[in-house]
Amino acid sequence: MKKIYFTITGLNHRYGSEFLEKGMIVKLVKEPDNDYDKEAIAVELEGLGTIGYVANSTHTVIGESSSAGYILDKIEDGAYGEVLYVLPKGVLGVICEDSLKG
Predict the structure, then answer these.
(1) Of 93, 89, 62, which is closest to residue 79 (Cα–Cα)?
(2) Which of 27, 42, 51 is nearest to 99 (CA)?
(3) Which of 71, 80, 82, 94 is buried most deeply by CB count within 10 Å?
């Protein structure tokens, strides 16, 4: 199965990205009632709650990342992802294969 990469955005509105490390597991949670983006997928970390969102714009995704809109129908209500890189322009992760539909 093809890997699905994602970019975590909006980190500076909460806790920043300095604490994130390669290998950390994050939870992806669909937010269909989000007032700003009906395709929103929150990125959560245990003990902190929402730390950011999956990027949903060609201007905010990095590398081979998929947008939240693309990922939305590939996961159930939630999924898990692993942090791959913490970069100056964003954080890149990959969805854990066992979190994908079918």
Answers:
(1) 93
(2) 27
(3) 71
Boundaries of every domain in the chain:
5-97
Rounded distance between C-alpha atoms, residue 48 and residue 38, angstroms: 23
Q: Is 26 left (phi over 0), alpha (psi -120 to 50) or beta?
A: beta
- Nearest partner of 6 among 73, 76, 102, 83, judged by Cα: 83
At the topology level of CATH, where does 5-97 sit? Alpha-Beta Plaits (3.30.70)
| Tens digit of each residue's pLDDT (9 = 90 or more) over 53-99 | 999 988 889 989 999 999 998 888 789 999 999 988 889 999 987 76
User: pTM of the predicted model, to two decimals?
Assistant: 0.90
What are the beta bridge partners of residue 49?
A: 45
Helix (H) and strand (E) counts in the chain: 1, 6
